[in-house]
């Protein structure tokens, strides 16, 4: 089973996905047309992230690896964290590292993950398999999750790896019946501030209002990252939780 907020939907064309979130994106490497849609984007995959260059102010839509590895790490965390709790961004550590794991990225390297939706799982009484739900906006519009990104150099190969994680907060009234937490969804008016140079925009790290959002049960096929097709977001009966997923769950 995936970890909390461990699957996302990026099905809109990359240019539309990014431009619906922020204006003025730079298509630096012409990869936008070469990447297929993701209906089940998972940790350890390269997914679309919006960043801002602090020197030039240029915004870019780039593919980064999901699972944060801070620049100061001597080795990859196992596994790299895909989420960072808003309440402990300045203090959380992961052994063997002793310095705060997310603090540098929070202060200097914030990003936005543009998505069409995300998945969460609900425990079903008497069943071993949890029921997955898709969560999105009622109007179907893409929206932006608060994220952090890092550059890490592999000491063995010398190769650079750009990674990211999603910031999480308390669940709103929609999500609370199935999980106590949810990703930080940024209001459109807050996109620029999240990407700006402010050290601690703490008040943005709050639950998003439930009213504009919707949620529906989907097939347990989403449990396996190997399944990545449009049928995963089709509404399903909650009784579908009794059916085994295809492939290996992750």
List keywords for this structure.
single chain; 250 residues; mainly beta; five-stranded antiparallel β-sheet; 14 strands; 7% helix; globular; disordered C terminus
How would you characterize the overall build of this protein?
- The protein is mainly beta and 250 residues long.
- 7% of the residues lie in helices and 31% in strands.
- The chain contains three helices and 14 strands.
- The chain has helices at 14-19, 103-108, 191-195, and strands at 8-10, 25-26, 38-41, 46-52, 59-66, 83-85, 110-115, 117-122, 131-137, 143-153, 160-170, 181-183, 185-186, 213-217.
- The strands form two sheets. Strands 2, 4, 5, 6, 7, 10, 11, 12 and 13 form a nine-stranded mixed beta sheet that branches.
The helix/strand order is EHEEEEEHEEEEEEEHE
- Please tell me how large the radius of gyration is: 18 Å
Oligomeric state of the chains in view: single chain
The overall average pLDDT, rounded, is 88
Secondary structure category = mainly beta
Task: Quickly describe the structure.
This protein is mainly β and 250 residues long.
Topology readout:
Blueprint: E1 8-10, H1 14-19, E2 25-26, E3 38-41, E4 46-52, E5 59-66, E6 83-85, H2 103-108, E7 110-115, E8 117-122, E9 131-137, E10 143-153, E11 160-170, E12 181-183, E13 185-186, H3 191-195, E14 213-217
Parallel strand pairs: 2-5, 5-11, 6-11
Antiparallel strand pairs: 1-3, 1-8, 4-5, 7-10, 8-9, 9-14, 10-11, 10-13, 11-12
């Amino acid at each position: 089973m995936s970890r909390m907020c461990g699957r996302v939907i990026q099905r809109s064309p990359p240019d539309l996905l990014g431009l619906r979130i922020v204006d003025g994106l730079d298509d630096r490497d012409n990869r936008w047309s070469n990447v297929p849609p993701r209906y089940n984007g998972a940790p350890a995959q390269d997914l679309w992230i919006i960043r801002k260059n602090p020197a030039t102010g240029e915004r870019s839509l780039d593919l980064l690896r999901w699972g944060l590895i801070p620049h100061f790490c001597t080795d990859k965390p196992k596994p790299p964290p895909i989420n960072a709790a808003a309440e402990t961004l300045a203090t959380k550590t992961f052994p063997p590292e002793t310095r705060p794991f997310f603090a540098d990225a929070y202060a200097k390297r914030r990003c936005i993950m543009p998505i069409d939706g995300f998945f969460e799982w609900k425990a079903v009484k008497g069943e071993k398999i949890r029921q997955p739900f898709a969560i999105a906006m009622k109007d179907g519009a893409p929206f932006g999750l608060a994220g952090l990104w890092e550059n890490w150099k592999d000491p063995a190969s010398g190769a650079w790896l750009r990674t990211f994680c999603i910031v999480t907060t308390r669940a709103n009234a929609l999500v609370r019946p199935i999980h106590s937490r949810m990703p930080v969804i940024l209001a459109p008016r807050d996109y620029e501030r999240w990407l700006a140079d402010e050290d601690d925009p703490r008040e943005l790290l709050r639950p998003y209002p439930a009213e504009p959002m919707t949620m529906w049960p989907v097939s347990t096929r989403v449990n396996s990252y190997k399944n990545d097709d449009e049928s995963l977001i089709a509404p399903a009966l909650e009784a579908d939780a009794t059916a085994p997923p295809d492939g290996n769950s992750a």
